[in-house]
Amino acid sequence: MDESSPDLQSQQDEDLEGSYSKLPAFRRKQATVSSFVFYVLCSLGLLICVEVIIFSRFLLPLAVGNASYSGDRRSNVSDLINLEPEAPFRTSFHFQPPKNWMNDPNGPMYYKGFYHLFYQYNPWGAVWGNLTWGHAVSEDLLHWLDLEPALKGDQWYDVGGVWSGSVTFRLDGTPIILYTGLAEDLEQTQNMAVPDDASDPFLRKWVKSSENPLLRHPDGVYKEDFRDPSTAWQVEDGSWRITIGTQVETDGMALVYKSRDLLHWELEKNVLYTIPGSGMWECLDFYPVAPTGRRGLDTSTRGPSVNHVLKVSSYNDQHDYYAVGSYNEVTQAFTPVNQELGVLYGLQYDYGKFYASKSFYDPVKKRRILWGWSNESDTEAQDIAKGWASLQAIPRTVWLDSELGDNLIQAPIEELKSLRGVKVSKAEVELEAGSILRIEGSYGGQLDIEVTFEYPDVSKVAFKYGRPLDDPFDCSEGGSAQRGVFGPFGLLVMADDALQEQTALFFYISQSKDRQWSTYFCSDQSRLDQLFVGLLCYI
Ligand code: DQQ
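# 2,5-dideoxy-2,5-imino-D-mannitol complex -> structure
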């Protein structure tokens, strides 16, 4: 704990397209990364197109501060962004509070002209603890005004901390917060808070319900394993449902509660989903996805063509897993479209540092936006020395991959493009096997890199090498130094001129014996200087 703490804490052009469609899991990737010098790494012949855009860091920095909103987004720049030599590694475009510890994004929403982001925040130091709901508002999801915390632990049922939760809009359009409170004896309780003045677009003041706690752990559920209420959704008869994460023994599961008024909740006898032995499920997110197109759906949208996404934050390995599936309102059962991609044994939103994510429907641009917490690799001592810890990943728009129907496609929000500055690009460069290509002019601390790798006819590659297929691939075994039939290839970021230091972000393609293709997206931090640990790349 910080000393200052009081007692509280992705064949040639046409052929390539052809091979692309033949290879369901071979996806072109785009990445937004932070870098010092940028190189393209290749262990086999490839064609690439690269575009590097250097963000205009000094023109439009992320405006985060504890000042009243002036309408001038740059008004608080000097004390809001760390340009000082002693804090050169704070990000400029990712959300971070001005100081101290931050973890999960909570209850993101759009209300009366402003996007709101709440977040797990320790007002007293750069370590986890004393959790409150930090609160910031923005007109564009890029420039933020940090406000006073919206919720603090001051009642018996949340005195140990105001933990994660969600926002739901009532039918009259006012938002309510459902959150987990930590009581003194560590019991996890579910509670509600409502705006004190719903006409205030900033929603600065929240009032806790006199009926709190609305829910206590059910029989058979350990009091410390009952947390993070989801956004509520309405079913056909107008009643509401929420899901809450737990584990029974070691079986992770998504409990479902029912309510008519969002205040009085009753446990449904069936669970939404469970996986034996998966451990505690945190920060469940459950939302509908449109069958085609990038359009997002509001959380209560129903219909025969509507599928749902269930996301689980797995406490055991700290990754966010999801599955696309159907939801039966009567039995409450969620059934993944692709049984092999069932939650927790299938897809992750991200294969880097990304956890406790939360999505929301943006009614302005009719899209679903995903926020995720990017915890770093710094030690606690390093965080205390810096005076801050962690950041939120750039918000992403998510939509269903209609070609396959069992996974999501993600892209950074379009607003991010407004921050772009100088552009460096190289088109149709052929990479020799085993080569490293330096992208000249891409020197900078904040780069947006879009790269398209065009792979030769993979069936010929496999034939030429005459080797057996090489599935499965393990990112962590040998890192980017591994050499295989189909990889690795990718980027070297955070690299110095001598390439003594480098972080590889690389792809590897493999084919299983039953001829199924898989694309791995890995990062290798083994050649990263300790000084930069924790900086890496924030996607
Ligand atoms: N973080 C919160 C919990 C949640 C966990 C506490 C996930 O509510 O389960 O800070 O990171």
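# post-check
The chain has four helices and 34 strands.
The helical segments are 12-22, 77-80, 380-386, 458-465.
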